[in-house]
Amino acid sequence: MMVKGFMFAFLVLAAGCTDLKPLEARIEDLQSQVNKLQADLAKSASNAAAANKATAASASAASGVANQALSIAESNTAAIEALNAKIDQMFKRRPAN
For residue 22, is pLDDT > 90? Predict the structure, then answer.
């Protein structure tokens, strides 16, 4: 009776071992998918870093252009005010002699 029990247990274990092959294949497939996703994630992170760098450079350039435009506008305002002062001076009544 004991021998039959051991034989039955051995057959169950042997049958269980043959069922591991599909599981091993599935695990290998999942591992390859994980590796691909990790590579894709690293590539996406690299692309995001490059885009961030380009955005920062663009923002810096835009800020420089905006500062230059502000400087020109302030200069133009001062020139217009000086011109208006000259025009006002020209039309002021001169004292009669």
Answer: no
Look-up: residue for tokens 């039955």? 8
Residue 97 lies in a domain: no
- Return the DSSP state at 1: -
- Whether residue 96 lies inside any domain: the answer is no
- 10 lies in which domain range? 2-91
Q: Which among 34, 42, 36 is positioned nearest to 50, based on CA atoms?
A: 42
Residue 19 CA to residue 26 CA, distance in Å, equals 12
Please tell me the predicted confidence (pLDDT) of residue 40: 97
Cα 34 from Cα 41, distance rounded (Å): 10
CA 44, 46, 47: angle at the middle one, nearest 5? 65
**Nearest CA among 72, 57, 38, 54 for reference residue 30:** 38
Mean pLDDT of 29-37: 95
